[in-house]
Structure formats: C-alpha cells, structure tokens
Specification:
Elements: E1 2-3, E2 6-10, E3 17-20, H1 30-43, E4 45-48, H2 55-63, E5 68-69, E6 85-88, E7 121-128, E8 136-140, H3 141-146, H4 150-156, E9 160-163, H5 165-171, H6 179-184, E10 188-191, E11 193-195, E12 202-204, E13 210-213, H7 218-232, E14 238-241, E15 248-252, E16 256-260, E17 271-277
Parallel strand pairs: 3-4
Antiparallel strand pairs: 1-2, 2-3, 4-15, 5-17, 6-17, 7-15, 7-17, 8-14, 8-16, 9-10, 9-13, 11-12
This protein binds N-oxalylglycine and manganese (II) ion (MN).
The site of N-oxalylglycine has 10 residues, from strand 7, strand 16 and strand 17.
Length: 283
C-alpha cells in the first residue's frame, strides 16, 4: 500500500509494518514524517530495512519524534553520545564475549516503565545481528486487552502496578542495581490498563519492570501479572522480528511489550544501538 510518500506492508492483524521508500539517513519531508507518524500509530511497530545510519543520523531521526532521554545504566551508554545506548556482546577486538549485554531485554518488558514518564518510542538499529536466534518479539497489548473477557476486564479496573528497576533486575538475574541507580529510579506506579492518547485504545501496561499490584496482596498481584503476561504473549498477539543487518525498528512502548529470543552469545555477534523518545505519565 502506498501511503503518502512511503510504502507500508502490514503484518498480520495490522500489528507491525515494513516501511519502504524512505532513506532515513538522507532525511525526509514533513509530509513523509507525518506518514511515518500515522503508520506507527496504526501498526505500533515499524521496520525499515537496509538503512545505513551512523549514530548521529540515528539521533537525528529519533529526535523528529520528540526529546530523547538517556538511560540510568551508564555501562551501556555511548562514549560520546549519551542519548545512544549500545547493547553488544563483543569486546574491543570485536570478538563475542559470551555475555548478553542486558538480560532484562530477554524477558517481556516495555521500555523504562519504571520511571514516572516512561519511554514513548524506541528506535533500535542493528549494525550486526545473530544468524541464529536473537529475534525480537513484540506483543500487541491493545489487542491482548481487547481479547479479555468481561469479568477479567472488570477485575483490572482501577488497578495500579508498581514498576521497580531494582526488582526487575533481580527477576532477570542481572547484576544488582547500584545505589545510584536505585536513587535515580525509585519504584513508581502506573495504571495497569492505560489509554493510548492517539487512538483512545485501552491497553495492558505491565512487563518485567512491573513487580506487583498496588494495595493488593503481593503474591496475588504477582500471580495476576503472570496470568496477564501469559495471555498477552500468545502467538496470536505477537510479531516476531527476524533481524537483518542494518534494520531500524521504531516501536510504541505505550501499547506493546517486547523481548529478545536466546542466541549463542559466545559464538554470534549481536550489536544493536538505540535511542529513546521521552513519554508522558501513563493515563
Ligand atoms: C531495547 C531492547 C531489544 C533487542 O533496546 O529496549 O529491549 O532486540 N532491545 O535488543
Ligand atoms: Mn527494551
């Protein structure tokens, strides 16, 4: 389908679309930007293939969507450009280290939900991808919410989930949060069901950073979150992104979750770099 100045090839259920006809490094018109903005609203995840961006061009593209934010984990921060984060399993010599850079990406999550103003869009590019495994899965949280039956939906009304960076790292078996990180990201709570400001769609908002439900017995809240995750990550709600070198992905964190599939970090090189657009408090 031709839409304005871009080609849009949608995946099943309109969840995710491959966008052609645009060279992100060359820059593009306001009309093209509006077409991309419309496509992300509709499809939630956009894939641009064969894009040859350097870090500066990556930032320039990301900044068209709003102000960018850095990350509290300084270990993965770019040396020169603090708004770029580098996730890679290679050492200085380019050899695989055997260590996936951020285990929190291997479990279902939505970016930075542990802060008061969680990420709006994430723009991730892949200078180098694993040949086997390492796909990124996305779950359509609006469709997942829409598929819940009556009593299950009513039960969620008014509930708030507590999101906690420290607990999230414990759950994903990452190095413990530092005192500085804990101070920078104390636990926050967000509605468990949020309303997407651009579409009015109600969507589940949870993932690994969500630790429990506010004012609910801890174990009961954890069980509810686990149930919802099982529901939302059924195949029928998922887009599986099979990376190629030089892909750029743009996704909406307000209505999706994502996770990386396992790969052999001792053999395969997997290098991705990302920029994140600031969001608003979920409502
Ligand atoms: C992220 C993330 C997924 C990937 O950048 O937020 O979860 O495919 N990355 O590396
Ligand atoms: Mn992520």
């Amino acid at each position: 389908m031709q839409n304005g100045q871009i080609d849009v090839k949608a995946e099943a259920n309109d969840f995710a679309a491959e966008i052609g006809g645009v060279d992100l490094a060359a820059g593009f018109s306001e009309e093209t930007f509006r077409a991309i903005r419309g496509a992300i609203t509709r499809h939630k995840v956009l894939v641009f293939r064969d894009q040859h961006l350097d870090d500066d061009a990556h930032l320039a593209f990301a900044e068209r969507f709003g102000p960018l934010e850095g990350h509290i984990n300084t270990a993965t921060r770019h040396d020169r450009l603090p708004k770029i984060q580098v996730f890679q399993n290679v050492d200085q010599a380019g050899e695989p280290t055997g260590v996936h850079p951020e285990r929190g990406t291997l479990v279902w999550h939505t970016d930075k939900s542990y802060v008061a103003r969680p990420s709006l869009f994430t723009i991730l590019r892949s200078p180098s991808v694993a040949k086997t495994g390492g796909e990124t899965l996305f779950a359509d949280m609006a469709r997942a919410y829409g598929a819940l039956a009556g009593p299950a939906v009513q039960r969620l009304d008014g509930l708030r989930a507590v999101h906690d960076w420290k607990r999230s790292r414990e759950k994903s078996d990452e190095r413990p949060a530092t005192a500085a990180e804990i101070a920078a990201a104390p636990p926050v709570d967000h509605p468990l069901v949020r309303t997407h400001p651009d579409t009015g769609a109600r969507t589940l908002y949870m993932g690994n950073h969500a630790s429990h439900i506010l004012d609910m017995d801890r174990a009961e809240g954890e069980a509810l979150l686990a149930d919802l995750e099982r529901h939302a990550t059924q195949d029928k709600f998922i887009y599986r992104h099979r990376w190629r070198d030089n892909d750029v992905l743009l996704w909406d964190n307000r209505c999706t979750m994502h996770c990386v599939m396992p790969y052999d970090a001792a053999k395969e090189r997997r290098i991705v770099r990302r920029a994140v657009v600031q969001g608003d408090p979920p409502g």
